[in-house]
Amino acid sequence: MTTELGWEGYRTFLVDRREAESETVTSFYLVPEDAGVLPSFRPGQSLGFSLDLPDRVVPVIRNYTISNSPRDSSHYRISIKREPPPANQPDQPPGVSSNYFHDQVQVGARLQVRAPSGQFVLRPEGKGPVLLLSGGIGCTPMIAMLNAIVDSGSTRDVWFVHGVRNGREHAFGASVRAAAQAHDNIRAHICYSRPDDGDILGEDYDSAGHVNAELLQSLLPDTSAQVFLCGSMPFMKALYNDLIERGFDEFQIVYEFFGNACELREPKPKQVVADMGLTSDVEFNVEFRQSGVSASWTPSSGTLLELAEANGVEPDFVCRSGMCHSCLSVILDGGFEYIHDGVVTPMGDDEVLICSARPTSDLVIDV
Ligand SMILES: Cc1cc2nc3c(=O)[nH]c(=O)nc-3n(C[C@H](O)[C@H](O)[C@H](O)COP(=O)(O)OP(=O)(O)OC[C@H]3O[C@@H](n4cnc5c(N)ncnc54)[C@H](O)[C@@H]3O)c2cc1C
Question: Are residues 187 and 282 in the same domain?
Fold first, then answer.
């Protein structure tokens, strides 16, 4: 059933339009096949996709951020970067889903889509300055946030700071510049790490090199902004720690991983578990059945995923925040609970997202 808040499970959408944003990024405009209500979303939220690919036994599950403004009520737009093989491993296959979208998903294609979800969101009506800080394809939530700020008439001071290789890979450049030119409260700085000969300083980009502490210091001398951070893991780690060193409070910085997550600084999930008031002598046995590993869980073990990793088990994961379903596993016996809000709970009662769960009894998992 679809309501203004969302829908359960997957709903069929049609690709209404495709648009190249750069040589590597293409946008897909999606409308519901049933022509029913299109629930609103908060800027920064993403959609989950289940792709039935011809050569795959199980569906490929991926998330893509909605890159338009919540004000556009006729469609969702997602913007996908084509993932090539890693530069140092050119023999490996390119990214499955992103290349499928670029090569196969044409206008009229049908897609299975989960409702907008995610906690990496901006409230345009909030107060105080905002720094939207992105690297590469990490710009998509920032574009939605910037569009939402413009559309809501918010007067929040916004810095849109973006690092990308060059003009060929730079998506949404013209619309960001237009927003900055039209609104006194919006400023943008684009950094090209390897500008092409044809890229024009001052027109296409504002500085050459990487986004770094010195650049941020020169743009935002004070530390009052709320920071939204998304990019590659090295980009996020470096800038997160630079900001903390400069005196930003960790609660001012919210971030989202598009690939494998890691601790940027503090081990957050463990902290949440500690905050639950559990006595430290609680102990459960967790059996990872497929791996033939059993381990003892105590509150300091963190999530089931962390317990697995600490004991040499290597389950799949991506977001580590209960959204992308990469770590979805089956419970064979025992109980669990989620340790934070915002988990996109799986359909099956026996399914668990181990990145965000802890046991409430002895547990057997099919991992
Ligand atoms: C909340 C969220 C929002 C997101 N929003 C966006 C968005 O707006 N836009 C966007 O483009 N992406 C977004 N992503 C990322 C997206 O979900 C996918 O992870 C991304 O498109 C890559 O998926 P893929 O299937 O193309 O690549 P995968 O098949 O997952 O491969 C990833 C990389 O691994 C390499 N690889 C494959 N096999 C091997 C191997 N054996 N050894 C070494 N390397 C290998 C591939 O070449 C590729 O470079 C988001 C992710 C999350 C969690």
Answer: no
Domain assignment of residue 13, yes or no = yes
Q: How far apart are CA 292 and CA 294, in angstroms?
A: 7
* Residue 328: inside a domain: yes
Residue 277 confidence (pLDDT): 52
Which pLDDT value is given to residue 281? 73
| Per-residue model confidence (pLDDT) at position 2 | 77
In this structure, which amino acid lies at residue 190? I
Q: What is the pLDDT of residue 280?
A: 63
**What is the residue with the minimal CA distance to atom 7 of ligand 1?**
64
Q: What are phi and psi of 82, to 5 degrees?
A: -70, 120
Structural domain range at position 13:
2-117
> Among 62, 88, 96, which residue has the most ligand 1 atoms within 8 Å of its CB, making it the best to mutate?
62
Residue whose CA is at the smallest distance from ligand 1 atom 5: 64
pLDDT for 142 equals 98
Specify if 262 maps to a domain.
no
Ligand 1 atom, smallest distance to 62 CA: 17
317 and 350 assigned to the same domain: yes
pLDDT along the chain (367 residues), means of 10: 84 98 98 95 95 90 95 95 94 96 98 94 89 98 97 94 98 97 97 97 96 94 94 93 91 89 61 50 92 92 90 82 83 91 80 92 94
- Count the domains in the chain: 3
Minimum-distance ligand 1 atom for the alpha carbon of 85:
47
**Residue 248: inside a domain:** yes
Which residue has the least CA distance to atom 10 on ligand 1? 80
CB of 318 within 8 A of CB of 64?
A: no
- Is residue 102 domain-shared with residue 50, that is, in the same domain? yes
Same-domain pairing of 246 and 357: no
Residue 268 has a pLDDT of: 42
State the distance from the centre of ligand 1 to the C-alpha of 81, rounded, in angstroms.
9
Cα separation, 350 vs 323, in Å, equals 17
Phi, psi for 55 (deg, rounded to 5): -95, 15
Do 200 and 282 belong together in one domain?
no
Output the CA 16–ligand 1 centroid distance in Å. Answer: 23
- 231, 136 Cβ separation under 8 angstroms: yes
Please name the residue that has the structure tokens 């089931």.
304
Picking from 256, 282, 305, the residue at the C-terminal end of a domain is 256
